[in-house]
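Thanks for the sequence, V.! I ran tRNA threonylcarbamoyladenosine biosynthesis protein TsaE right away. Repeating your input here for the record:
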Amino acid sequence: MEFFVHSVEETFNIGKQLGELCNSEDIICLIGDLGTGKTHLTKGFATGLKIDEYITSPTFNIVNEYHSGRLTLYHFDVYRVNDPDEISAIGFDEYIFGEGVSIIEWANYIEELIPKNFLNIEIEKVPSLGENVRKITLTPHGEQYDYIKEIII
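Predicted structure:
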């Protein structure tokens, strides 16, 4: 499923809808270059989960935990991970197989650690259509992600 968004607000809105629909143990893999909107989508996702904490990218922490919503959100940023063992050492499996929802920015860096069931979200800049235009592609891997069919811009 593909969407073309023209603003940060539209990116946020897709994330919000996903957060409203997601379930415990969902794994959301975000892929996209720097500045494409991965963290904005995550902020929307957190809003959809009714998380009232300020969301920041965990660039230097690897993972931030947010417990104030209807489900716990584990927000990973693995951009600076040089070795998959580094992410395993922080208890990655306990997070992604836990009761919360895991969002993993730069998930393509640790593909070998991602379970077979996940929702892949790729965000790409589309400069030919405008400076702020992004193509967001949602690709479910597993039937539990059928809720993406309900997403609208």
